[in-house]
Structures are given as structure tokens and as C-alpha cells.
Amino acid sequence: MNHSAFYANGGGYNSPEVETEIHPTAVKRASPIVVHSPNTTYSEDYITSKFDYRGADVIQGADGQLNITPTVQPFEIRTERKVQKTGIMMIGIGGNNGSTLTATVLANRHNIVWHTKAGVQTPNYIGSLVRASTMRLGTDPRTGKDVHVPISDVLPTVHPNDLVIGGWDISGAPLDVAMRRAEVLDYDLQRQVAHLMSGMKPLPSIYYPDFIAANQSERADNLIPGNDKQAHLEHIRRDIREFKANNELDRVVVFWTANTERYSDIIPGVNDTAETLLAAIKSSHSEVSPSTLFAVAAILEDAPFINGAPQNTFVPGCMALAEKHCAFIAGDDLKTGQTKVKSVLADFLTGAGIKMLSIASYNHLGNNDGRNLSAEAQFKSKEISKSSVVDDMVESNRLLFKPGEAKEASKDGKKAEKSGEHPDHVIVIKYVPAVGDSKRAIDEYHSELMMGGRNTLNIFNECEDSLLASPLILDLTILAELMTRVVYRPLPSAMVATPVEYKPLYPVLSLLSYMLKAPLCKPGHDVVNSLGRQRAALEGFMKSCLGLENLGDVLLESRIW
Questions:
Q1: Strands 86-91 and 251-256
Q2: What mean pLDDT do residues 147-176 have?
Q3: What are the tens digits of pLDDT across the range 516-554?
Q4: I need a surface site. Which of 6, 48, 386, 519 has the fewest CB within 10 A?
């Protein structure tokens, strides 16, 4: 059967003959928030806010006493109100995530509804932090009730329906074929969006066989020719420029959603500085990975680059290059199911004073990601990103876990080497083709209770992997675009003597950590993995852009007379 013709002709079926409302997560709304405060001013172009960043310096004296000095630094933040026309270029657009995200945006853009065995389904952006969750702004004085708003409404953000989609893939299959190959979406939806995707063909990509599993070679039929990595870099940069110009875009976000690579060796004189990395590309050094090459191209084209896989794309030289060009980067590895739950449970157990003794995590899945991860080198990359998620929570409670020697945070933005007592943490991933995109995750948390008691929590989680990952790609893209419109400056204080010019945020967008398994952070600073703290940081930053205090949950009005 000619499947393309079958799709194009409707396969003998019609779209549901029903009137449906647009799902709340896909509705376009005008920004409904206006802050009435001397700290917040609005112009046609900008929202300008003043806020006090409060902290505390804690120094332990020789006698063990902790001496605390509260600190305050006033800042001014300016946010450009006009949302940029934005495109996303995905590396691996023909994979499960890329084809699923593309079909989802098109279905929402055209409000395509479809039949399932449970009835008629409406397109939506459920699973997106930005589009499908809310945050508390304050209370209504007339009722005393909390007021929550969608996160997408707090500041002007790009609507996912308006994103222009493109990208690269080593497989040249058009996106309607890639969507069918992925076996993620319902057939009736595939049938209706296929004609919108059939003309979308991935740009040729780069393929260095040493970095991904050998079993991926059969898909590699859409390649930029040759072995000259400098030529490949220039080709990718040209692709970004042409995509931006042809679609009349203000901003392009480049997103790695391709196969997990093996870790790159960090070699002095090769990838340890910006200059050596550029020289290594010029000489086509074997340790320059495809993802690092794409990251360098994006940095040089001033396009935010987000790494949605676990490999060490951001080698020290790449981090330094981003700093040099003030270009935004974020990573690593999308945090979807098992790891997101782990970051909550580990926080809960440690915060409750329960000592985790071991965490055993087992996964099996049958999509192409699972197939690639069946190779040992690629699995090791994933194992590293999954295992680091509890580190800061363990470090926060040395009543339960014996401390080791104090170690500084890593200079490359990664977590420092583990020191001190730590739970045993084992991770297993198996490839089982029969289950397709429906990933199974089984976790056991074995903990110590009072007086030598034991507690074991077992969790079984079945999830559709790409339907959890795709909303995160949208969130990261939307928030990255927002961050390019935000600048700040410290105001005169005890810490800053004279006014300074506005600056963009630091290139590593650690504010996006909520969506990432192994988040990068500013070198010299500790990684935060606690899901609650990651979300609180993002909410607090967005409120500061409006000149609002970051509301806690003291709820003092309900505690006093």
C-alpha cells in the first residue's frame, strides 16, 4: 500500500464532525497582569522593575558558632515586551521527539480533533510547564483566596503555535513518514496532519559513527558530505542563517534531540579552551562530537543552544566560547518521568529525616532511543545524568549522610566529584522493541528509619516517553526566547558603589533546570537538582521581572490575630 497516498486521501475516513473549543493550554490570551507599584514601570517597549535580592552570609567561627549576616542587593531588570518571531531547529527532527512535537504544534495550530477508542480528542499542550501549569501571584483581598495564573501569562512569551519548525536529521525521511515510523500518535491524528508534514524534509546532518551506536548506521542516508569538520561547521552555520532569513525570524533556538552520544574525552590542547576547540574543529580532531559542533555553530550564530541528551556536549572549550560570545546555552538531558519523580522523592525522604540507603532504577523501552542506549558507551552517558540527580539533596543533610572532604564545585559547570557517604545508586536500561515508545520504569527506594528500622518504596511508572519529552522541548524553547529579552543591572548599594550598564543574563541558563536531568550551572557554583527549588527559582525570577516579592508559604495572615 502507498501509505502517503492513503494518508493524503484520508484513508476512507472523515475528520470528526464536531464543534470543539480550543483547549485551555492552547488558547492565546493577552497578557492580563499589570503591577501597580513604584518598583514597576511600563513603557511601550519594556517592563522595568526594581527588586531587592536578599541573602545571608554564613561563616563558621573557630568555636563552631555560625555567624550570619543578612545581605541585600537591589537590582533593576528590564524585559522587552515584544515577543520575537521564533523558530526552533531540532537536531534529530525525524526522531520520535521531533516528529511528535511537529505534529502536536500543527494539530494545535489548526485545531485538528481526532477519534480515539475513548471518543473525540482535542489537541493540547498538557505536560508543558509554561502552557499547562500555574503560579500563585497573591491573594484577592475581597475573598482572601489565592490567585493563580498560567505561567505563560506572567510575562510575554511566544505561543508554541507560532513557532516555525525545522531542523536536521541523519535520516532523510519526510516528517509524515517519521511520525508513522515513531508509532507515538493515534492513527486518526496522523492521517489528518500527514499532508501538513509530508513536505517537511530534514536538512542533511553530520554523522560520526564513533559517537553513537553502530545500530544507527542504517538510518544514516541524509548526510552532509565529507569528513572536514570545519566545512561541516560552516555548513550548519549557513543552514541557521538561511532558516532565519527565509522565515523572516527574529530568533532561532537550536535544540539537540538526536541520539545520545558517548562522552567526549576532555583533552588539554584540544577542547579545554575556546581557542583550542576551534582549532580542533579546523583540524577535524576525532574528539569533536556532532553535538559539540552544532553547539559551536549555534553560539557563533547567536542562537541559544539546548542539549536535550546526556552526553557532555558542553566541553570546557564550548562553555568558554559561549562566555566569550555571551551566547545562551542550557542542558543536559530532558527530565521526563523516572528522574523527575526521583528528584521529588529524594527531596521528600531527605527532608523528612529518612535516610536513603539505596536507589535501584530499572527501565525498559522499545523506541530508537532505547535501541541506541543498548550500546555500552551511550548507556554510560545516560547513567551519569540519571545518577547525579540526588547529589545536592544528600549534601544538604549531613546529619544523615556522613560528610567527606569539602570540595569546590566543578569549573566546567558540572557537579563536583562525590565526597562523603552517599546512597547506593544503580541504574539499568534495557531495549525491548515490543513496548515501543511506552517506557516502563521501576524504582526501589530502600531507607533507614528510627531505631534501625527499614522502609522500602517501590514505584512502577509506565509513560509514553515522547509525549513527556515534547512539551519540555517547547518549554525550554519558549523560556530561552524569553531570557534573550531580559537584561539586568545592579543598583548602587553597599555591595555596588556606582551604577552600571545593563547586561544580559549569564550564558548558562540554569533557570531552565526544572526541565533537565543534569543541569548545567555557572562554573564555581553548585548544581541544584531538587525539583521544588528549581521551580521556585524560575517562579521567583519571573516575579522579580515584575517587581514582585517572591511569596513564600508562611501565610502570616493566617497565623496571627
A1: parallel
A2: 96
A3: 998 999 988 888 988 999 999 999 999 999 999 877 777
A4: 6
State how far the Cα of 175 lies from the Cα of 94, in Å rounded to an integer: 6
Model pLDDT, residue 11? 39
458-463-465 Cα angle (round to 5)? 130
Return d(Cα 306, Cα 315) in angstroms, integer. Answer: 14
* Alpha-helical runs (H) found in 326-435: 338-351, 368-373, 376-387, 391-395
What 3 state SS string does 35-62 have? Answer: CCCCCEEECCCEEEEEEEEEEEEEEECC
Q: Which amino acid is at 81?
A: R
Percentage of the residues of the chain whose pLDDT score is greater than 70: 89
Q: Which of the following is catalytic: 244, 335, 342, 382?
A: 382
Cβ–Cβ under 8 Å, residues 277 and 233: no
pLDDT band, residue 366 (cuts 50/70/90)? confident
Quote the cell numbers at residue 483: 531570557
Percent of the residues in the chain that have a pLDDT greater than 90, as a whole number: 68
Which residues does 291 contact at the CB level (< 8 Å), separation at least 6? 91, 256, 258, 261, 307, 309, 311, 313
Show the cell assigned to 488.
Answer: 539586568
Catalytic site includes residue 443: no
The reply to whether 402 belongs to the active site is no
Q: Which of 176, 333, 347, 369 is catalytic?
A: 333
Alpha-carbon gap, residue 2 to 527, rounded angstroms: 51
Residue with cell 495564573: 149
Determine which one of 340, 342, 517, 543 is catalytic.
Answer: 517
300-337 burial, b if ≥16 CB within 10 A, otherwise e?
A: bbebbbbbbbbbbbbbbbbbbbbbeeebbbbbbbbbbb
Q: Which candidate in 244, 439, 443, 465 is catalytic?
A: 439
Residue scoring higher pLDDT (428 or 493): 428
418 carries an active-site annotation? no
pTM comes to 0.90
Q: Read off the DSSP letter of residue 354.
A: -
pLDDT in tens, 323-345: 999 999 998 899 987 788 888 89
pLDDT higher than 90, residue 260: no
Query: What are the grid coordinates assigned to 115, written together?
Result: 477519534
407 is annotated as an active-site residue? no
Question: Do 104 and 157 meet the contact criterion of CB atoms below 8 Å apart?
Answer: no
Smallest CA-to-CA distance from 182 within 470, 471, 473 is with 470
Q: How far is CA 275 from CA 112, 278, 300, 328, 437, in A?
A: 49, 5, 13, 19, 41
Set of cell numbers at residue 378: 551511550
Q: Which residues on neighbouring strands pair with residue 447, listed in sequence order?
A: 356, 455
